[in-house]
Design goal:
This protein is α/β, with parallel strands linked by helices. It contains 13 helices and 16 strands. The protein folds into two domains: about 1-125 and about 280-330, 3-Layer(aba) Sandwich (Rossmann fold), CATH 3.40.50.1860; about 130-265 and about 330-360, NAD(P)-binding Rossmann-like Domain (Rossmann fold, 3-Layer(aba) Sandwich).
């Protein structure tokens, strides 16, 4: 049978306490120290992932470092932990390995990890891009936003996912701001977008200021901490939060009933997907990075499909075609772990119009 492995990790020490209740009263500092030296764990065996064309099984393997530890510990320490987890997946029988969350971000985004394993590696970022673009476009329709007359801000735009999202969405929006920490990298990306689409691009290293004029926001910062708060967002805005951990503060859902925040990169997969480790997602729904790994196994494409920080447009198109072939599709919208119903979105849209000046009256969307 065709097989895959996928690496996961806890967002913080509270995730460990949820998995192992006996550790709930342990001091966080002690838990972090134990996790730094703990071996990788196989946390689930996935079965019954099937399409009309093939069936695969796989394994979730956890490396016991939190997002914060991956950013703060010495890079060799972090890479060694990830490589050990990858070898654990190899021993389980995986023929390809997907890197989840921060395991795909650290260092050179998977290149070094792939060199130390006998099986190919993918970050899953190509399909994450495809689903993020689908999500923001569908959400714009539901909120009666005309992209051609709207301002888009992409946060984390110099990263692998953010840069290709900005490039692919640039021709379809009225104006664009790209935001990240490194101004020189932003200027380089702005030049690429200008040459590809002819569109002038604003750049910003002040994320919170950048989004205040934006009807559409895609955020994938790679930060371990929240970066967007209720006071930052424009009335009626749509925010597609692709980052894990989330970039958007949960307080936005509580204090801004006029803003639609959706989780990017969620995919409904075919078959009778069996797993006891669902990441808080509904049955049959996975993150797009996981789905990319599954798709490559279903296609028997045992290759390093997405590695490093440069994603090609053709890669995004290829993985999207594979998804359509095997029946993978964008899952319904979720916001802060809750499913959004059509009625809930209509309510957000209705509330948002009361915040908008009459001269900014929204118009029905046209084809992109």
């Amino acid at each position: 049978m065709d097989t895959f492995g996928f690496l996961v990790h806890p967002e913080d020490v509270t995730d460990v306490a949820k998995k192992f209740p006996s550790l709930q009263n342990w001091p966080p500092a002690l838990l972090e120290r134990i996790m730094r030296f703990a071996p990788p764990l196989q946390v689930d065996h996935l079965r019954a992932i099937r399409s009309e064309h093939n069936e695969v099984e796989g394994w979730f393997v956890a490396t016991t470092l939190t997002a914060k530890q991956m950013l703060e510990l010495p890079l060799p320490t972090v890479l060694n932990k990830i490589i050990r987890a990858g070898k654990r997946a190899e021993r389980a029988g995986a023929k390809i390995l997907g890197l989840g969350a921060f395991t795909s971000v650290v260092g050179d985004a998977g290149i070094t990890i792939a060199k130390h394993l006998r099986i190919p590696v993918t970050t899953g970022n190509s399909y994450t891009v495809a689903t993020a673009i689908q999500a923001i476009r569908q959400a714009a329709v539901l909120m009666d936003i005309e992209p051609k007359e709207s301002h888009l801000t992409v946060i984390g735009a110099t990263g692998a996912i953010g840069s290709i999202c900005a490039r692919l969405l640039a021709p379809h929006v009225g104006s664009l701001t790209i935001a990240a920490r490194d101004e020189s990298k932003l200027e380089h990306l702005a030049g690429i977008i200008m040459s590809e689409s002819g569109k002038m691009v604003d750049i910003s290293t002040d994320v919170r200021h950048a989004v205040r004029k934006s009807e559409l926001v895609v955020t994938v910062s790679g930060s371990a901490d929240t970066i967007l708060y209720p006071e930052d967002l424009k009335a009626g805005a749509v925010v597609c939060d692709v980052a894990r951990p989330r970039d958007v503060a949960k307080a936005v859902a509580e204090k801004r009933p006029d803003v639609l925040v959706i989780e990017g990169g969620l995919v409904e997969i075919p078959g009778e997907y069996q797993s006891g480790f669902r990441f808080g997602l509904p049955k049959g729904v996975v993150y797009a990075c996981m789905a990319e790994t599954m798709l490559l196994a279903l296609e028997k494409r045992y290759e390093c499909f997405t590695l490093g920080r440069n994603i090609r447009v053709e890669q995004v198109r290829q993985i999207d075609e594979m998804a359509r072939k095997h029946g993978f599709k964008l899952a319904g919208f979720r916001s802060f772990d809750k499913q959004l119903t059509p009625d809930m979105i209509r309510t957000i849209r209705k509330v948002s119009t009361s915040f908008l000046p009459k001269k900014e009256e929204v118009r029905p969307i046209t084809n992109l």
